[in-house]
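Retro notes (design track)

What went well: tokenization of the new backbones is finally stable.
What didn't: we kept losing track of which sequence belonged to which structure.
Fix going forward: every design gets posted as structure first, then sequence, in one message. First example under the new rule, 143 residues:
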């Protein structure tokens, strides 16, 4: 009976060791970058010729509201705005604003549809088209 317990322990230990060899570490996965991630980042990011972070954040908020989003959180220090659109589905958008060089700000939008990352360029194009128009109107003091 004791031999059977030793064999069972040996088999279980061997199986665990064998399975752990197949596991990939999350840190190695995090460091891998492929071309599709770079393309997605390009779709999600636009540069604007302004250095007024506060005004840009306010314009981002107004644009999100114009597109039917409800702003959940805005942080001027971090330069981020999070908003949700509920219309039979849940679309969440997080937009960050950060400096780029001396004369520009980078605006990056990241959308999630029911907790799944959105990689459809049309969503981002619509947002940036509206944001670009709003930025133009704000820069020229048009209400």
């Amino acid at each position: 009976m004791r031999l059977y317990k030793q064999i069972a322990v040996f088999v279980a230990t061997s199986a665990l060791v064998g399975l752990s060899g197949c596991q990939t570490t999350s840190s190695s996965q995090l460091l891998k970058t492929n071309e599709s991630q770079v393309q997605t980042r390009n779709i999600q990011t636009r540069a604007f010729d302004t250095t007024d972070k506060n005004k840009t954040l306010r314009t981002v908020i107004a644009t999100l509201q114009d597109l039917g989003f409800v702003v959940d959180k805005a942080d001027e220090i971090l330069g981020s705005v999070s908003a949700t659109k509920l219309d039979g589905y849940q679309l969440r958008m997080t937009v960050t604003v950060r400096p780029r060089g001396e004369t520009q700000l980078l605006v990056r939008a990241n959308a999630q549809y029911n907790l799944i990352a959105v990689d459809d360029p049309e969503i981002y194009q619509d947002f940036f088209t509206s944001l670009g128009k709003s930025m133009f109107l704000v820069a020229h003091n048009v209400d």
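Added context from the reviewer: The chain has one domain: 34-139.
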